[in-house]
Amino acid sequence: MTAALTLSILTGCTAEPENVDGEAGPAGAPSATATASASAAASSTTPSATASAAVSPSAAASTTPSAAPSTSRRTSEIRKTDWANVTLANLDYMGLGDLRFRNGRAASGANNCTMLPGGARPAYAEFLTEEPASSPVTEDALILIECGSDGLDQALIPVKLGFDQKTRETVGFIQADPPPGPGSRMTFTSYTVEKGVIVTTVRKADGGRETRRYRFGGGKTWERL
To answer: Phi and psi dihedrals of 174, rounded to 5?
Structure first.
């Protein structure tokens, strides 16, 4: 992309919110998780220190998404994820399988991937079904990754805790539209979860913007509404 996208952060400022909105940065820009300093990552107990590294000063000054929980409640396990160094289990996107990120980067065959590109941030909410049903209800995450070989494409990836409460299990993906030609592609500019529905704003290859909604369709599928 030739122009950066100006984005807003929508977060609660008092009690712990039902969900926290994700923010997508300029497509093709370096991963915020990859450019964060080691000292900042080491001192943080949530992903916010790494995710906010490439965000504009005005955005960084507001409440950061993963620092939102009330002091009266414990931080959920998914919010403790070090997204720069996470392993995403069973990733169906591009048939990547178990994808291990290190410093915000991962590779599988000819494909190179970036976690939370350009200052993107995860969104958090309880929106994925727990399996088996006896599993404890936990908060889930929605993240943005960018992968490809010659060209890069983006996808939103829903992530939940595995039964062991440690594994980061992926539940399908929402892929950007196929690029119509070289140098033009669709990107995600913001995303959130509203009453179990993923709501995202996209910038299409022709430069137009639109809001899209997706609901869980069973298995690992997501249906556009």
So the answer is: -120, 110
